[in-house]
Prior knowledge:
The structure holds two protein chains of two kinds. Chain A has helices spanning 4-14, 43-54, 72-78, and strands at residues 19-24, 28-34, 64-70. By secondary structure, chain A is an alpha+beta fold. In chain B, helix 1 (3-13) packs across helix 3 (56-66) and helix 2 packs parallel to helix 4. The radius of gyration of chain B is 13 Å and the shape is globular.
Amino acid sequence: MVTPESIRIDIDKGMKTSYLTVEGDGQHFEAVIVSEEFAGLSRIQRQQRVNKTLGERMTTDIHALSMKTFTPQEWQEKNK
Amino acid sequence: MDIQEVIKQQVTTHPVVVYMKGTPAAPRCGFSANVINILNALGVKDIFSVNILESDDIRLGIIEYANWPTVPQVYINGEFIGGSDITTEMYQSGELKTLLSKVPA
């Protein structure tokens, strides 16, 4: 079974994040990702950036990964 | 016709296109159901939907077309909008309504 931790590790390895959580039940997962790499990227480009860290896993063992993406500035605004 | 050409034709000849699991009346996945619910809530009457469970060519084709590994995929006026997360965010922010207002009735 796919664990949230295994997804977290792959994302963490593949890109620079300042905050990263992944939760899930083995089928559906939810990630919150804060990264300075998102600056200037559209929503689609941000998800594509994260998808890249997971490679083929996105089309094979991960059924569904829902994600919220923020730059450090956006994250700070949100949590004010 | 090449599958990429087929997809391009589908998304450019219909204002609102959804590639999904199942059909709008009977979605086979919660995320697909979610985008249909949102489009319905915004009053979109004419959704051109493609059930990817019926065609492996289309399923693999849209992954390549949008460089996006999952379904659903929503297209408005030929432009790839995103999947369930982005459609939801754009619905909540009002951006989706604005985009849809540019769709010819």
